[in-house]
């Protein structure tokens, strides 16, 4: 009888030993769905996602910016506040003369776009350093947004945004903070003015990429505007 029980005992032993290991192919193809249940060799889900990110020879976002974005995205996805596995990261710690917007497909771990993006005229000159949720401040707002619907306005095709953080960016709709194209978001403007142009608070992008980007990220995908602000991180409930 002992002889016949031995294989069953071994099977139970090995199933317990490996129950928390994520298959290698799953880790590479879809880290999002495993983000709240697994840590592999003490590596967090956001670290795993960053290490698997493929940029297609485009510049990579910063580790800190991406990891904050991914943490917040995971919480928002669990709550149903965003529904797509598309993450847009804007890094306002960087010079406006650099390509500091990334659109990332979290299903395939691919960087789809990396481009210029403007900040508000009262947020700073070349560098962003002052942010607001107040109407007529002409400043950018930090934090997490859900993308909304496409409409046609004075800048052509534009994408509405819903700020998801009370007191930080919750007035985005009221302020008409949207993604739109602008001719002052271009390499030629930088060449002639030594810095990128600025908006009234909108994350404006190059005209030639506007249609492609807003069609990719529309309808409840996650957008995160990052800046290494201790006050923001202390205030945001997504980091509590």
Automatic annotation (TrEMBL):
It comes from Flavobacterium kayseriense. It comes from the Bacteria. This is Murein L,D-transpeptidase catalytic domain family protein. It holds the Pfam family YkuD_2.
């Amino acid at each position: 009888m002992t002889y016949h029980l031995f294989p069953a005992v071994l099977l139970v032993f090995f199933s317990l030993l490996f129950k928390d290991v994520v298959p290698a192919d799953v880790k590479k193809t879809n880290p999002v769905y495993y983000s709240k249940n697994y840590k592999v060799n003490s590596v967090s889900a956001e670290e795993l996602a960053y290490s698997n990110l493929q940029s297609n020879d485009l510049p990579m976002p910063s580790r800190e910016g991406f990891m904050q974005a991914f943490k917040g995205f995971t919480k928002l996805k669990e709550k149903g506040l965003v529904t797509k596995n598309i993450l847009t990261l804007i890094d306002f710690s960087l010079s406006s003369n650099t390509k500091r917007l990334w659109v990332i497909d979290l299903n395939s771990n691919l960087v789809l776009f990396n481009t210029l993006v403007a900040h508000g005229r009262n947020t700073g000159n070349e560098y962003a350093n002052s942010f607001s949720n107040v109407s007529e401040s002409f400043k950018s707002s930090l934090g997490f947004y859900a993308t909304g619907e496409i409409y046609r306005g004075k800048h052509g095709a534009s994408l509405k945004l819903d700020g998801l953080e009370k007191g930080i960016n919750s007035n985005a709709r009221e302020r008409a903070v949207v993604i739109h194209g602008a001719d002052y978001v271009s390499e030629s403007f930088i060449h002639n003015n030594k810095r990128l142009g600025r908006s009234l608070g909108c994350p404006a992008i190059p005209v030639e990429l506007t249609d492609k980007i807003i069609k990719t990220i529309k309808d409840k995908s996650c957008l995160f505007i990052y800046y290494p602000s201790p006050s923001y991180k202390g205030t945001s409930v997504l980091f509590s």
